Amino acid sequence: MNDARDVLCARCPVRGRGCRNQLLNLYDYWDGKRRGRAFPARADIDPLELGQMLPNLFLVDVLEAAPHFRYRLSGGNVDEIHGQSLTGKTPRHIRTADVAAAVEQRYREIVAARQPRCDHVTMLAEDHTFWHYECLLLPLSEDGERINMLLGGIYET
Description:
Layout: H1 3-10, H2 21-34, H3 47-50, E1 57-63, E2 68-74, H4 76-82, H5 97-113, E3 117-124, E4 130-140, E5 149-156
Antiparallel strand pairs: 1-2, 1-5, 3-4, 4-5
């Protein structure tokens, strides 16, 4: 495994458990698109190059105020996980208020830290079952400075 992947997995809260290969491949794709910059832009991301990952990917707009977040688009598996299409919605429109708050906090932390983040998460769903997933979030920037979008990949575990 290369150094960038090792650093990425070292950030996972579940020590000793690496991110799944699909998320590592997404990280490598994002890293290659940076081309010496801190972040790639949305225009650098080509959906045709992401192939089988597309159903598990989503894009989140980082809006100036506060910041707030809005889902620009979400793949079919992402929508299935959430039981609805996320496109055009904010995190406050998904799941419970506690889940929405946790998602928004995670997004704010990534924008502030200006670094990718991979989480292994267990959450209590509305039906009182547990939802286990891995989620990789990658910052994007149109101007190379301000994070204006997040590229995410999510897989149930």
